[in-house]
Amino acid sequence: MSASQQLTPTNPNSALKIRLAYRFLLTLNTLNAKKPPNFDHTQIHRRSHRVKIAAYASMASVVGPKRAWSRAILWKIRNRGMLARNKKRIHRISTPIRLHRHHARRRRNPNRVVHVDPFVNSGLEVKLRKLVPGAETIDPCGLLDETADYIKYLATQVEVMRNLVDLYSTI
Amino acid sequence: MSSRRSRQSLTGASKITDDQIIQLLSKLQQLVPEITNRRSNKASASKVLQDTCNYVRSLHREVDDLSDRLSQLLSTIDVDSPEASIIQSLIM
């Protein structure tokens, strides 16, 4: 049976894919079991939104609470009812971090010639913080690490979904 | 790496060592597919970050698009059918 062959992955990426795919299918199954499929356009739009949430939720739950981005995703999904009701109470706290960083720059040793500050253009940092979930309050070094981890899992999840779409469309 | 990070939080200032930044930037470079074939010395930090932002945005767009297609396909297929069990046995 090909299933036993697939259970022995040759590289860690395929092991990750298997875990993500399994979790995603589980979530999709529970999603489908709740409501019966129908061809109404608004229902399809709502269903695609639910599939998207399922994708992010399954990706974040595979990682668990180890990462800031997965924690942020899980928190957002669990509290999305509360978030929708209390939109005004959520405030962005990105400005104090920028001030904090300027302070650190002044204290740096002036004898050091080589400075590798990746966020010379702070517009990029703000953009990155908005894109990666849970990245608004991380120090700039941890931000790069979180981004790398997030990209890795997100790219694998996209691959899993692409394979699923191909599989479903050929059946 | 974790000891360096705890030292950072103790001092309060974000004293980022250059090695860490170079290491993380090279890690990002490996992950983002467009810039892997460029020489790491030449790629500037802002270019890497810009490409990373674009890549993350394109991944988000792809997730949206794929979930649209998946939802359309799911509405036409009964998930309890034997095909779904085949898929699940493949994954397991």
Overall structural class of chain A, as computed from helix and strand content, comes to mainly alpha
Please report which band the strand proportion of chain B falls in: under 5%, 5-15%, 15-25%, 25-35%, 35-45% or over 45%.
under 5%
Helix content of chain B: over 70%
Our count of helices of chain B gives 4
How many strands appear in the DSSP assignment of chain A?
0
SS elements, strand count of chain B: 0
Low-confidence stretches of chain A: 1-7, 92-110
SSE string of chain B, helices as H and strands as E: HHHH
**What is the helical fraction of chain A, as a range of percent?**
over 70%
Shape of chain A: globular
Largest sheet of chain B: none
Most extensive chain-chain interface: A-B, 68 and 54 residues
Multimerization state? heterodimer
Strand content of chain A: under 5%
What can you see in these coordinates?
The complex is a heterodimer of chains A (171) and B (92). Chain A has 171 residues and is mainly alpha-helical. Chain A has one domain (13-94, 125-170). Chain A is 71% helix and 0% strand. Chain A contains 8 helices and no strands. Chain A has helices at 2-6, 12-34, 41-63, 68-78, 80-85, 95-106, 122-131, 140-170. In chain A, helix 2 (12-34) crosses helix 3, helix 2 crosses helix 8 (140-170) and helix 3 packs antiparallel against helix 4 (68-78). Chain B is mostly helical. The two termini of chain B are 36 Å apart. Residues 1-14 of chain B have low confidence and may be disordered. The longest helix of chain B is centred in the middle third of the chain and has 32 residues, at 45-76. Chain B is elongated. Chains A and B meet through helix 1, helix 2, helix 3, helix 6 and helix 7 of A and helix 1, helix 2, helix 3 and helix 4 of B.
